[in-house]
Amino acid sequence: MTVLSGQGFDRIAREYATLWTGTKAGQLQREAVWRHTSHVFQSGNRVLDLGCGAGEDALMLTARGIHVTGIDASVEMVRIACERGVDARHQAIENIAGIPGMFDVVWSNFGALNCVERLPDLRELLTRAVNPGGWLVVCLMSRVCLWETIWYALHGRFRKAVRRWSGEAKSSVAERVFYPTVWSVGRAFAPDFTLVSANGIGFAVPPSYVTGIPNAVMDRLAALDGHVASWPILRSLGDHRLLIFRKCR
After folding, report:
1. Which CA distances in Å does 77 have to 18, 84, 158, 196?
2. What does the DSSP assignment read for 154-170?
3. All domains of the chain, ordered by start, with CATH?
4. Which positions ≥6 away from 168 have C-beta within 8 Å?
5. How confident is the model at residue 34, as a pLDDT?
6. Which helix (H) or strand (E) holds 70?
7. What is the pTM (predicted TM-score) of this model?
8. pLDDT average, residue stretch 79-94
9. What is the C-alpha separation between 207 and 193, in angstroms, rounded?
10. How far is CA 5 from the centre of its chain?
11. What is the largest CA-CA distance in the chain?
12. Rounded alpha-carbon distances, angstroms, from residue 246 to 60, 98, 123
């Protein structure tokens, strides 16, 4: 199993809110994820947050009476999360066997699992970590993002416009990023986990690097996403794919 180093994210940790979390696109995409997953979480749940970053999701869940343990490969991200009151630790995803206890939900938002080359190697670890009947919720960067392709093509950056299509690419923070298909993710976690739903995140709402769109227009795009982002074909063209699995009893 190959898990990417967190050093690239160490460099941008203090700017991450400006680059993603605090942007209008980042806020709207995160709200969409929370909306699709609200039924998964119950007060008193134990949640393991894989790739917790600066703790944005952990804080939201904690406010709902949920006990969250976060891990991240970036030392700086973990430091920021801890400063915000999150129970976070510097730990690679492949080392979750060292975390005591079992969890009602294992959660990984906005691409942490895109940093894992071989997802099947995680299946046994996840099976041990999730309670019977519990949930595995993963939000991954899609293999094809319509916004990305159009945006970079219009700016003459054709290689970047199609960088995801092969299933692997470089980014500004990592040497290797992987873009698995929904089918391959489902196969990686079967038979221990059953795919319950697959939703598109950010079909109409663009990635955060797409600039110049007024907030009022972004809100309309988010409303459009609420209607069409989960339609077949369209859901495969969003910035992210949200996959909800249930552990077999």
Report:
1. 14, 11, 32, 31
2. HTT-HHHHTTTTTSEE-
3. 7-247 (3.40.50.150)
4. 176, 177, 178, 179
5. 97
6. strand 67-72
7. 0.94
8. 95
9. 29
10. 17
11. 51
12. 22, 23, 13
